[in-house]
Design goal:
Helix content: over 70%
Pfam families: COMM_HN
InterPro entries: COMMD4/6/7/8
Largest sheet: none
Number of helices: 6
Radius of gyration: 14 Å
Distance between the termini: 47 Å
Structural class: mainly alpha
Number of strands: 0
Strand content: under 5%
Length: about 110
């Protein structure tokens, strides 16, 4: 018997909730870890592990957040989205301004490098 799966439409809500359960500085810390491979550096998995412990996130939540942040940053860069437009889009998707700004701050770093 197969295990019940969450419908794909619920996955973004789970990520949004995981983002917003953490303070904007914690989300900023995660973004700084995640942006490293996107700018040509290695991801610091020890730092990521320490982050997940300190933030009290389950492994599945960490994976979802890392994947979401990577996708947001890669897509924004690939499609030459301005940082202000990225912030507005994240807010339209339901993130509050402080959490959106935490992601946009990391996008600035990526944006300057590409």
């Amino acid at each position: 018997m197969s295990s019940p799966r969450t419908s794909p439409s619920k996955e973004p809500d789970k990520v949004k909730v995981a983002f917003q359960r953490k303070s904007p500085p914690k989300l900023q810390e995660l973004c700084e870890i995640v942006v490293q491979p996107l700018i040509g550096k290695e991801m610091d998995y020890i730092q990521l592990k320490n982050f997940s412990k300190a933030a009290s996130l389950e492994l599945s939540e960490v994976k979802a957040c890392v994947s979401a942040v990577q996708q947001i940053l890669k897509s924004g860069s690939c499609y030459a989205v301005s940082p202000s437009d990225l912030g507005q889009e994240l807010e339209q998707l339901g993130l509050d301004r402080q959490h959106s700004q935490a992601i946009v701050d990391s996008f600035y770093l990526l944006h300057r490098r590409t």
